[in-house]
Amino acid sequence: MSALARTEEILSLAKSRTPGDRERLLLAVVDLCDVADSGQIMSAPAVQDLLNSIFMSLVVEAERDIRKRLAEKLAGVDWAPIALINVLALDDIEIARPIIAASPILQDHDLIRLLIEATVEHQIEVARRPGLGAPVVTAILRQAEPAVLTALAGNTQTALGPEDMALLVKASRRVAALRSPLARRSELTEELAQELYAWVGQALRQALTLRFRLDTEALDAALGQAVGEAHAGALVENGDAIVWEQDDEREEMEKRLISKLVAAGQLRPGYLLRALREGKLSLFVGVLSTLGDFPSDMLRKAMDSDQPEHLALACAAVSIDRSAFPTILELVRGLNDNRPGGGAEGARRALAAFGPFAPDLAAAAFRQTMSLRQA
Question: Which of 73, 137, 289, 324 could form a disulfide with 33 if both were Cys (CB 3.0 to 4.6 A apart)?
Fold first, then answer.
């Protein structure tokens, strides 16, 4: 059937109000998207009037699979009604994804609206969209959602300015997933590479050193000094100023927080990941100590060892899922000068701690192992 004949069919179906004809009308428009000269036909005033007058109600009433087909067909066209595209962009993520990724109808203000109103999954798709405008990038950075920041860092088809890169590198201190994509971006400068060097693992340090010819001896010396100072106090950002908060004050605040969470019944294993993603290693230790009833110094020895199996046993003891441990280990290493050691092979061995046995057995094994190491 020609595009003209299909257009006449669409106009005819539009006059009907029966549910079957309304669905056939929507499918006819979907099929017309594949016709070579559909853009010219669909831009005709009569068809545009039709789309603007009834399309919204059709889409709202349509079945999910039809909305999905429509979104896939309309993702690349420039004649679709703006309101319709925005409705589809706010639909379930599987429906919205192609629209957010490619629709030329969506402008910066539409994308910013999605960042404000839609789910994190929608926001991630916005951050992955090629060629984002500066206002959209700014909105993403302002919201500072870790998963969305990571998607933006990996979006090599969107240019990032010096200030954007500086903010992302700063955020990589608490969001470990940012480090690898940032290390590979063309906009990374030597100055920012030196800052990023402090947070990445050994493999990325080598890549940064080769790319920028960094003075690793000076950087490692500065890093060692910073780690030593961290044992005496915690670095806390306060606007543009930097102040030192003493260990006893910080630990007292964390103890109060943990006590409140326990009293409210909200201290759960999932809080361990949250503490690490916020860059709070001592809070991670406090939470794990409370959940597992472990001495905190025992946990610190486990984290400073060259065997990640010990930390894995402690995590298994509080019912952390096996699939979550690689992320926990990566975050701990990022905050603890790449300790516990053991590299990739140690991380693989550590998964054996999540064997087919009860958490209380893992707890007993952890206490016994660490007691022997302390003896």
Answer: 73
**Which of these, 209, 241, 370, 59, lies nearest to 51 by C-alpha position?**
59
Question: Does 66 score more than 90 pLDDT?
Answer: no
Residue pointed to by tokens 């441990």: 325
Peptide bond before 340: cis, by omega within 30 degrees of 0?
A: yes
Q: What is the pLDDT of residues 191-200, one digit of tens each?
A: 999 888 877 8
Domain boundaries, the chain: 1-106, 129-230, 247-374
DSSP 215-259: -HHHHHHHHHHHHHHHTTEEEEEETTEEEEEEHHHHHHHHHHHHH
- Over residues 95-114, the pLDDT tens digits come to 999 999 999 999 999 999 99
Q: How far is CA 276 from CA 21, 248, 329, in A?
A: 55, 20, 10
234 backbone dihedrals φ, ψ, rounded to 5°: -105, 135
pTM of the entire structure? 0.56
Contact 152, 158 (CB under 8 A): yes
67/72 Cα distance (integer angstroms): 9
Q: In whole angstroms, what is the distance from residue 281 CA to residue 362 CA?
A: 22
